[in-house]
Records
---
Amino acid sequence: MQTQLNQAPKSRISSKLIMPFVKSTMNVFTTMVRIKPEIAAPYLKEDGHATYDVSGIIGFSGGLLGSVIVSFQMETARQLVNALVGSEIDTESPDFPDAIGEMANMVAGNAKKDLGMVTNIGVPSVIIGRCHIICRLTGVPCIVIPCHTSVGDFAVEVNIKLAA
Amino acid sequence: MKFLLVDDSKTMRNIQKRILTGIGPVEFAEAGDGVQALEVLRGVPEGFQLILIDWNMPNMDGITLVNRIRATDKKTPLVMVTTESEKSRIMDAIKAGVNNYVLKPFTPETMLEKIKQTLKIAA
């Protein structure tokens, strides 16, 4: 279920928290993976399911709390990992989630400098499996940034808030 | 030449190895965090020509590792390879004693250029 951003209460959603992740996603995938994503209109996510089947999760602490998830279709993940690493990676090997985690790490880390406050990011966690549910910060909107590439779709889910 | 690659991501270490073979004949040692890196350094008395260090790692982070290395070794070139791009972080790394800084994400060309620059200055 999703709500377009222009229908959601504006006071709860700041583009200042979303745009750094849009910019970072473009930068990371264009530079390091060499596959340029097309970013579609962000929307508000209202259920707990990850958008796709492979998720790299980065926690935030310090000035910002919450998490950012980079969620991929499985085949898209496989192709992006292969492009990142420069060779075929078996999705069953530990190198596959490691690469997913590194992509999530770079998306979150690259966004940090534009978020306007001192914040820390944690080491990545990776979940692989259809229809997995990720517990998010309650009372905090989860904004999904849909990304389309030549090898399939992925999404960046931003669920963060200013620390009290 | 011998390089030590310190990053908790094996993916990132493999990417660095792939790119840095462009410099010439290089042997690589690897460590997944600062604690492992110090163990590797203890086991290689002749040292390394270059050490690449990630910032955010479990057990011991990159800046702590840099401080520990520089306590006894002022000469080995250290290059931070990280997403930490705030000016204050870069200044912290320079004050701790890194010789150069590569921001993630990077192109192979940028990485090679920065490493060649670091080695040239150190020579």
---
Amino acid sequence: MYGWAGTILTIDLSKEQIIKEPLDMDTAEKFLGSDGIGVKLLWERVPAGTPPLDPANIICFGSGPLTGTFCPNSGKMSSVFKSPTTGLIGVSTAGGFFGPELKEAGYDLIVLMGKAKKPVWIWIDDDDVEIRDAAHMWGKTAWEAIDIIHEEVGDVPTITIGPAGENQMFGAFCLVMRSRALGGVGSGAVMGSKNVKAIGVRGTKGVQVYRPDEFMKKCKEAKDKIMSHPVYAGFARYGTPQWSPVLIAQGVVPVRNFQEGVFPEGEEFLDPETPCKEVFVKSDACEGCVIHCGHWCEVRSGPYKGTKTEGLEWYAEYMFGPYIGCTDWGFVTKASVECNNLGIGFGAAGMIAWLMELYQRGIISKKDVDGLELTWGNQEAALEVLRKMAYREGIGDILAQGWEKAAEELGGKDFQPLITRLITTECPRARMDVALSHIVSVRGGDHNKALPYFAWICPPEYIHKNWPDWPKETPDIYNPIGKPEIVDWIEDWKCVNDSLTVCYWSTSVTMPGGTNPTDYAELLTYATGVEYDEKKLLEAGRRIAVLERAFNVREGWGRDVYQLSPMFTDRAFPRGSQAGVKADMKVINEMVDKFLERKGFDSKTGYPRKETLEQLGLDFAIKQLRKLGRIID
Amino acid sequence: MAIRVTVQYFTLLKRTIGTGKEEYELEEGETVADLWIKILKKFGAEMEKGGYIDAVTKEPKSIIIAMSRIGVLGLRHVGLYDGLKTELKDGDLIAMYPPVMGG
């Protein structure tokens, strides 16, 4: 077997069975890996309408055919499940070393199904797979659980959940090693619902590639492309916090739950040089990464002095910075460590900003939040809310049930910064690229599935040369023209990235002129021995993207799921360059309609067209959708 | 009539020229190109050494010049559309940085 490991490891927790199945090569060729094979398994193995925290839901953790090879930036992994955060498909990716180690142990994917009778953890030592008792680590933080695992089996890559996952808090994540996360859409809650505390893996088998000489030559070429790209040097020094200038320039810093778009009191905080001075110690990389956007961090002064972590990045900076009115990198570091230990996704932590706005507006008072003073910038209160969410105490129990239930209890639904059921950090009021890519995102409205980053950092000529059919207005972020085309393309390409699995910081999603589909088609051909070209690779991405969207349709989500919170349509920033601008749903809906039609879905119902599924070899989905009346014949 | 604009430099560009933020006074009707000439007079050597400008044309290379403003045509991204010909207005904030990614 070349490229792929050749085995899917299914663990039936209810029956305490370990099942090793050969990877179906037709599936592998068409769905590539991790994300793609995962969504096919989800479709086949989870009955329609299964509640996300029901034992009948599954969670897949996977690697791709380039994982564990010398292909640059191929050290990622992804997870696929039905999300308790959104009710939509749950797709999350993470860096670190788990994905490559899993592959080297001989598995393309792990599938957890059913529910263990008591807390367990899974130990994978090459061919030996055990379901071990986890009574001694249940109730512990994620980092404590990792220490226990390392004590038992040695220093191996892990996936763990914290108390938030155990307690099935809606936005709990699976922590990968100590600081990477399968975040955003509740992977940790699904693990917790299955009574699985952790997975540890040791792999010593390596990965075979079919044409090693050509593969290595191409890897070198890809590495040189990435490292000579103008984005590279800034990424290597600052990591994702280098994003701030973009939001400052556009006047869309998400300040105090998007009430403001400018943050003068946070000017120094947002300067990417500041974390370098205050908390970064040195760069760090995932396996196979040549960019090293991560950092080892240690708080050098202030109340959180001595707090250490790795991988601190932009999402934490914003959720624990402007979103809640804080300007302290020491606090950002501390809050990140708390999230990692408790197992709370940073998106779910965004609920704190919503609570603070309700508090500011008098919609809730101290008595509603266990006596906490939820004023903007109150760091102690924010940390206490996190703890309460994880352990489901008081106000934390209300929040742990998710955005909808929390609004039913507390009110203030119109102040939830949601797009298509998920929290956003990007503002969709004026930026048409953000509005469309977020609202149609299959996992809910964030930046991870289809934000066309490269559209506005490269010269328009680049886009016109590479995609001559796209309208000339495509790179203009404030113009709706061209957005359906580019978001459609990015979504397919991102599915390829997440299935191979390569980090999209290194590919043409984000690096115009960087590594592109042709490069990866060649790498994949040399690695697996299966012939790919750009067309075939992108068609695989489209197949995955369409099946993910069809899964949402099967689960009951039609055209009406694509929604912006009224906070974006009914209110505007009071100052800055976007003062007074509100999202125009007429314009946005026109883009959504055009996008859906391009994707092969009916723009009125949101349902897939039969011929779309047939053309992509997704015939197996037709019968179920027809039975549910959710397909356009 | 004179106008004042703020220029903010970020990330590696800021390190290269050693300045994070400054204000410029311009005449009404002057453009980003006029501003660019003034910036070059101060920091041209450092920028050229850092590879941020074209050695021949002296135009910006590998720099995003970003400015958002609501106007009759809606918001425009200077770096991509009107480019150096964009007329500046009193109070404009212009951000300059090498291509960045993140989020």
